[in-house]
Write a structure and sequence with these properties.
441 residues, globular, alpha/beta, 8-stranded mixed sheet, 16 strands
Length: 441
């Protein structure tokens, strides 16, 4: 049985007391961390909200599950299912890892509610299939089942922040998710797939063989709009672009802040990776679909309005410009989307507690075949912010770094070895590959 994993977090953040370290965009909402959400400013989301907020559109999240009771997600999650190792069981799907909750918040966190963060599509709803376990790993069969389940339960966009770390195999055979991705497209849903955190610096090595698959393949940009070294090239993808994913190093404010699981329950965290890039695009597609466009027309509009001013890597057609996509190019960024309406809270599946990993910082310059362990860091909220009592501290999520094979550059040092070791072990024992969801703190 083939398996997949989430795209591993690549870089480790040291503990930092971030009190007004970096200035953010002028606040267009009253969300606590909005001034630090540089990614929304980069894609011009505040301007886009004057034309569309994704109302009436459901985004499918296929990942580690979701914290449906999170203050920024409560009432937005209309259905969940647990597809790990079995047929999808409706009503289950509590996130016991954090990755799926973070992806969900980037795409569609409640906005202008005085809490936490703003989502790209603040009025979109979510259906969530848990297909990855507490280690962020899962079987291809389960992931394909999860894709079909979210589509059959109303998803018009399908976010896939996961990938095959055994890129040497996928570069030849292509993604093992092709059948489910094409099923989604045939049903009028737009699949959005993270390109991966496996850049090698050796041309398209590390790029999956996407071919003519009907999916938007998304690489990352950092705070300055540059493509960070970890972001896998888009290669021969039919539809390729880049969107905010963070630098994977330095201050948490250089990465992407979103909803997360903390030691005390629901919280917020900073992370980076193409896993963070994909939900920015999923939210963007939701805004276009809410304007009445078909799936094909939404993809065409999105690609035709990309910023093409500077190169963004092999196969990349440009940088996401949401304001241009929805026709709000010149709109001021002062009008916030309406506060999230009161809705009936979706039932939360039973919560599962998973011990968090120990903290170890990986060596910065050496190459090692033994991947460093994971870490969690916390930082203080900004001074004078409208911090709600349920927001707690901002935590950098657990790091899921990977090493590199000998002879590849340091970017691969932090991405490939763990994934190849895990995948190789699975393949050797059971003829299976595992996919992994991805992030970079």
């Amino acid at each position: 049985m083939i398996g997949l994993r989430r795209l591993g977090v690549v870089a480790v953040l040291s503990v930092l007391a971030l009190v007004g370290v970096l200035a953010g965009p002028a606040s267009a909402t009253n969300d606590t961390y909005f001034s630090r959400q540089w990614a929304l400013e980069q894609i011009k989301a505040p301007q886009a909200w004057t034309r569309s907020t994704g109302s009436g559109i459901t985004i499918g999240i296929v990942d580690t599950g979701v914290d449906a009771g999170h203050p920024d997600l409560a009432g937005k999650v209309v259905a969940t299912a647990d597809c790990v190792g079995r047929p999808c069981a409706v009503g289950a799907g509590q996130d016991n890892h954090g990755h799926g909750t973070m992806v969900s918040g980037i795409a569609a966190a409640a906005t202008n509610n005085g809490k936490g963060v703003a989502g790209v599509a603040p009025d979109a709803r979510l259906v969530v299939a848990k297909v990855l376990n507490s280690s962020g790993e899962g079987r291809v069969e389960d992931i394909n089942n999860g894709i079909r389940w979210v589509v059959d339960n109303g998803a018009r966009v399908v976010n896939l922040s996961l990938g095959d770390p055994n890129f040497l195999v996928s570069s030849v055979l292509g993604t093992p998710l092709r059948s489910a991705i094409e099923y989604a497209w045939s049903k009028g849903a737009v699949p959005v797939l993270a390109s991966g955190n496996y850049a090698t610096g050796l041309g398209d090595l590390g790029t999956e063989n996407y071919g003519n698959i009907n999916a938007l393949v998304v690489g990352a940009t950092d705070r300055n709009g540059n493509v960070p070294g970890y972001s896998s090239a888009i290669g021969n993808a039919k539809w390729g672009l880049v969107a905010p994913g963070g630098s994977g190093s330095g201050s948490p404010d250089n990465n992407v802040i979103s909803t997360f699981l903390t030691g005390g329950g629901s919280g917020y965290a900073s992370s980076a990776g193409t896993s963070m890039s994909a939900p920015h695009v999923s939210g963007a597609v939701a805004l276009l679909l809410a304007q009445g466009l078909s799936a094909g027309a939404a993809v065409t509009r999105l690609l035709s309005t990309l910023d093409k001013g500077s190169p963004c890597g092999s196969g990349c057609q440009g940088r996401l410009n949401l304001a241009a996509a929805v026709g709000a190019d010149g709109a001021p960024a002062t009008t916030a989307p309406p506060a999230a309406p009161a809705t009936t809270k979706a039932p939360s599946p039973p919560r599962t507690t998973v011990p968090r990993p120990t903290t170890t910082r990986p060596p910065a310059t050496t190459t090692s075949t033994a991947p460093p362990t994971t870490t969690t860091t916390t930082v203080a909220p900004p001074p004078g912010s409208a911090q709600s009592t349920d927001a707690g501290e901002l935590a950098a999520p657990e790091v899921l770094p990977a090493g590199a094979s000998p002879g590849l550059n340091p970017a691969l040092v932090t991405t490939a070895v763990l994934l190849l070791v895990v995948v190789g072990g699975a393949a050797g024992g059971a003829g299976a590959r595992q996919l992994r969801a991805g992030a970079r703190p």
